[in-house]
Amino acid sequence: MAPRIGGFGGLFPNNDDYLVASTDGVGTKLKLAFESGIDDTIGIDLVAMSVNDIVTLGAKPLFFLDYYATSKLDVDLVEKVIKGIRDGCE
Fold first, then answer.
1. pTM of the model
2. Contact by Cβ (8 Å): 19, 11
3. Which residues, in sequence order, are CB contacts of 87 under 8 Å at separation 6+?
4. What CATH topology corresponds to 10-89?
5. Fewer Cβ close by (within 10 Å): the C or N end of the chain?
6. pLDDT tens across 9-68, in order?
7. What is the phi/psi pair of residue 48, to 5°?
8. How far is residue 85's CA from residue 87's CA, in Å, rounded to a whole number?
9. What residues does each domain of the chain span?
């Protein structure tokens, strides 16, 4: 269920309360980060975008799910992005 048109998350009834879920991306900032070689902060930004969407609905973030898609795996890059996600969750 959506709270309203344009809401930033989905609401799921849970007893007398709701769980809020959201997914987001960092948009063109991802391309800029990779072109500049600053890869270790993009994960932090990704977490921040998702958390912002959840807190606008008055919810407290409980967990974070990630999805990393690429046509060519660069292990060093993945490690930097995942480290940023971990840092963002702390």
1. 0.82
2. yes
3. 43, 44
4. 60s Ribosomal Protein L30; Chain: A; (3.30.1330)
5. C
6. 888 999 999 899 998 888 888 889 889 989 889 999 999 999 999 998 889 999 999 888
7. -60, -40
8. 5
9. 10-89
